[in-house]
Design goal:
heterodimer, A: about 160 residues, alpha+beta, Ubiquitin-like (UB roll), 5-stranded mixed beta sheet, 5 strands, globular, B: about 800 residues, Aldehyde Oxidoreductase, domain 3, Aldehyde Oxidoreductase, domain 4, 7-stranded mixed beta sheet, disordered N terminus, binds FE2/S2 (inorganic) cluster
Amino acid sequence: MRITVDVDGTRYSDEVEPRMLLVHYLRDQLGKVGTVSGCDTSNCGACTVHLDGRSVKSCSVLAVQADGHEVTTVEGLAQDGTLHPVQEAFHECHALQCGYCTPGMIMQSIDLLEENPDPDEQQVREGLEGNLCRCTGYQNIVKAVQSAAGTMREGSAPQAGGAR
Amino acid sequence: MTAVAEPASSPAGEFGRSRARKEDAHLITGRSRWTGNLTLPGMLHMAVLRSPLAHARITGIDVSEAKSMPGVVAVYTGADLAEEQGDLPSAWPITPDMKKPPAPALAVDTVNFAGDAVAVVLARSDYEAHDALEGIDVDYEDLPVVLDLESAAAEGSELVHPDLGTNVSATWKLDSGEAGSGGDVEQAIAEAESSPDGIVVRRTLRQQRLVPAFMEPRAVVVDPNAQQATMWSSTQIPHILKLMLAMTLGIPEHKLRVIAPDVGGGFGGKLQVTPEEVLTLLTARRLGKPVKYAESRSESMQAAHHGRAQLQKLTLAAKRDGTVTGMKVELLADMGAYMRLLSPGIPVLGAFMFNGIYKIPAYHFSCSPVFTSKVPTDAYRGAGRPEATFGIERMMSELAAELGIDPLEIREKNWITHEEFPFNTVSGLTYDTGNYEAATARARELFGYDALRREQAERRERKDPVQLGIGVSTFTEMCGLAPSRVLGSLDYGAGGWEHAQVRMLPTGKVEVVTGISPHGQGHVTGFSQVVADRLGVPFDDVEIIHGDTQSAPKGLDTYGSRSLTVGGVAVAHAVATVIAKARPIAAHMMECAEDDLEFTEGRFQVRGTEKAVGITDVALAVFAAHDMPEGVEPSLDSDVTYDPENFSFPHGTHLCAVEVDTETGRVELRSYVAVDDVGRVVNPMLVEGQVHGGLAQGIAQALFEEAVYDESGTLLSGSFAEYLIPTAADLPSFTTDRTETPATSNTLGVKGVGEAGTIASTPAVVNAVLDAVRQFGVRDIDMPCTPMRVWKAIQEGAR
Ligand code: FES
Ligand code: FES
């Protein structure tokens, strides 16, 4: 089947097998290997990307379902060399060790913050329930998300006032 | 403890500084280099057909249909590779008469666990390779399945490997009476039993089977056509892997290169020479094409090695005042179906840790590795030491409970006091330093021990359905594996040294080569700090080269909390060599005597003057080599192999409060305090991260995880849907702190931290759960302490 998908700002048009998972399309066909896969039961969240701005596990979406939609991966977050505040916070707060869960964690955290720009600890923990990390014990991930929330609220305040 | 604030430009004062990691930049932007990302021209994909049965004879394999399926290039069975595949290495024959079965990468005539590899398909794409597995027809004849550890070890059990004549592979013993490191334990037990003043506590504790569950599944790519056949593998041990492949497959060592690119966690689970690595290499060589194997999570669960899985029969003898007089340990250790790289040595490492931080006058340890029809077991974070710490710390709390003494008090009564170091333990180690009093006092304070005890008493009093439990665990760990002579005395097949090179480049930048192989720990950052501190160059001017046998040719890799304590110390020694080599040249440059030079913050300064040259100036002068002192080679490079004189012994005190709903059995972690002493700290933020992650894994063993098999030997917890790794919502925030008692056995004063958190947390949590429900007559609950188990224990106890 032929699909047309916008991924990280580039339009791709490809012939894919109907059974192909979005995560495989991204990795194997587009070379977007920043998005990874850690399980085969949709439990780990390592493969999380944004589909039209909302987080999805790209292992539980077929490539054909992304036809005509917009996908953002961890590779598309930094703008003109400036990291997304969540990426920055993961670095500053040591929220990653091996880094394998990190692409998914970052994408999920961004989604969480869009839903709730000022989450308390428990809300962050619950918002990340679908993403497993074996290295960090989550403490610094929670810290990073809350720290990014602070930065993003500050950043958005002047924007709301029309300044940029 | 807070980090020392230093201006970013100052190269000195790197110790104790929480630097954000150099490693992060590519990982947070998705520019990572996982083995699974690799694609080489003409590369084939390998899929593995695995046995669905736990024990069976292969009576026939028909691969004809698979061979004719689209995209399939080759299909191989065990018979096809029997000549070449050799035996997977087992490097630790714990006794001269240890029994071990052949361990082919691809089963030849029998399969010995569900997941054993039976055939491989090589195809153009991963999808096609997996499709073709359906086209392979295997006929099996069932053989008896052996699952329960205790009955497997019993006389008359069905056998996993009939040719061995037994399931018990060996028995390894350590007896303090015989070794001269202590008294006779049988006598201590007899005395405690016969004296009105004595007490003997007996428990049989179970360490369940666990899955290391590194987040990146294993992957291997082999390019057989490179100058040296090159293997990329998601491994912790590129150097050991290369050596073992050479030794077991007969490929000349100098014709192999192994690369560990970004590796997504290991926890001991990637301390292995795997069937899949061997098969990828062999098939790539046969076909003359690059081959890639990338496992699914389910395959990983059912084929990558598991951990723990012990039955511990423990006897503790003591006086009624709480003074321990003897400890006897009888272990059965589940090996699963084969001996992998270190399998039988893992429980033996525990032999030295069952005495914990205590003065135990008499000690006996025996361990029997036992075969079962399950996935082989091997190293998992802590490897033998968490099992031992669990044993002693559960027993100390049991003793305290039986005697009605506070569990902290009983520990204090028996521990080695800080004036008593260095201390020779009953199991034969020498602990260099420690301060258990300080760590415990700090933990007690942070935890609010007394207030929680009061609340506990109140809740008991008013028969609150939600009861409070307080768990205590101390630990110490032999880490920094290891003095080579000690490994030799344990019959391990290799040494424990580490290698480092420091190269001063003409522009003043520094390349450091290390033989350790990081997979998430942050060594690039930590080692850069060590070099920046010692050499006085900026942190950003240091590059750490690792994980490729071509560029980092010598090493023993990463496990056993050895990276900083052995590898980092090797780097520090290599830096010292660079400085020593630069000294005569600097003296020559400034026309002064070497003795007049002082080296601080990267500069050789003539004492009492302003005259100085930087190490980087010397590097440039050496590169030009126009004016070298007589007989001095134009190089500052150093090459050091360091063998530690002793282990290092981090320690700590962990306190845990749980709320147990006695009506549902649900356990809620309320607070957790960990005060660890890991010696001098290079980067507190990295240390804290290691502790957090370790705590999560140890708590997971106590409350959540278990590899469960059904009666046919099928792994029921075969995916992340059934094997419950804790999520963020399952864990609380931990309170962590440190005391700092520098190690005296290495020049940096550092101890290991990679395994520390995992070791103490499991017994702390289980002790807390028991502390909550002991009032109902409960004396033990098997891990994981699920609501069902806790509820049942309360019901049975109350009867
Ligand atoms: S790969 Fe695990 S949830 Fe998608
Ligand atoms: S950082 Fe390794 S799994 Fe999260």
